[in-house]
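As promised in the previous annual report, we have extended the structural survey to additional targets. Below is the entry for Major facilitator superfamily (MFS) profile domain-containing protein.
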Amino acid sequence: MTEASDAAKPEEATAGSGSDTVPAYSWYALGVLVLIYVLNFIDRQILSILANDIKADLGVEDDYLGFLYGTAFAVFYALFGIPLGKLADSWKRVRLMSLGLALWSTMTALSGFAKNATTLTVARIGVGVGEATASPSAYSLISDWFPARLRATALAIYSSGLYIGGGISLLIGGLIVENWNAAYPDGGPLGLVGWQAAFLSVGLPGLVLALWVLTLREPVRGAIDGLPTPEEPAPFRGFVQELFQVIPPFTVFGAASRGAGALVVNLLGAAFFAGLAWALWRWTGVFEQWLFLGVGYYAVFSWAMGLRARDLPTFKLTWGSPAFLCVVLGYGTVAFTAYAASYWGAPYAERALGVDKTDLGWFLGAPAAVAGFLGVIIGGRLADFLLERRPEGRVWVILFGLVTPLPAMWLAYTTDDVVLFYIGAFLAQMLSAAALGAAAASSQALVLPRMRGLATATFFLSTTLIGLGLGPFMAGYVSATNGDDLSLGVLSTLIAAPFGFVLLIAALRLVPQAAASVVERARAAGEPV
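The corresponding structure token record, generated without further manual editing, is:
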């Protein structure tokens, strides 16, 4: 047996026999989760096809549109993902997903009644809070429905909903806007225009899907790994504790409860992030972006310090693990460029290339759904295939998803030919999508079963507060300050690639040993396993 297969053995050994048959119900349940994620990204991504109409009606600029799509959503998605991730580790995950789906669907529908930027921002915040329930619950459920040998594949199938939903949102949004505005050129019922009708149309079906989700059966946590975990007797206690540790200004009281030293560290952290946000505001002239991100980064800092005091094993296996950090931050740079290209693709083609919304739905949105689906499925299968042969196999797939989309993005945003733009956008979407399943499975492999919800929330901190919170805004800001040049704006996000490359090269060396020593490191930190 080779050294690579020996190193991969510990993770496989916890999953039972490699020939175990996965029950049909697991695949059915995974299909329902995919539908949830499809709707998740329809509700999130439809803002792309509506961006130019919102800009015209509300009188906003590209930097605000980037803030609305990215930061306003991302900060609350990330922050509430932490306590909701804890709740996913202790409560009924199926119930949590159903409640979250009902909330974000309601807030999406309410976006359709927005008459100004403030109202739309508040609704967007609500969508972020609701959607924060989805992936921590789903990742944890999938890890209990599927053995380790198939988790990257299962997580990739789930993640395909991201690309399917994001792609068809352009088609759905374009058709609704153009048909509504044609039928009601002066505004329809309740005075709603096309972009408002689109929000309503995609928000309301989620309330029906939330009832379907409630019919799913809750699996026994950790049983498939031979580590069955009993239910928490007071599941909401941990949720409230995490909420108190992550939502300012309660974070100050949470730090004070840990002692004077913790309070001083917390206040110094608050001062640092406040000063950084102030400096960036003065430099860019954009207040809301840096206020939201400053609060978000300070809140995450507070939470991480609190986690270290309350749950040292989880802290050691996430924030205290160089391997874990290199994986999640490395994938965050993939998300940085991918989110910017995904969001700004439709507004760019509409403005710079003169493409109408219906054509964008058919020739950009629908192919993007196919590209993302193919990329994430192929990437997931490749990650599992390589893991069987090399312990760092999944990290190679993340690195592939970082580097290979760069030429395709350059082609898409420098050509004057619409067909070449579509081809470049298709390839960039497919190649970047390949990294997601590998990154998600790698992060799950580096923690214990009881930590998976919080590990997922931490993973999404990187994709949201770095990728979603900064990528689309940077593209919009560069565009707004350079004469509405969206080509320059999107291409400016490629600056993240060298940083991601360094992180993932480090992960190639760190992940194999970390994955093989999860239980030992948890025990050393005080975990009773």
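Residues 1-19 have pLDDT under 50 and may be disordered. Residues 237-310 form one domain. These points will be discussed at the next consortium meeting with the crystallography subgroup.
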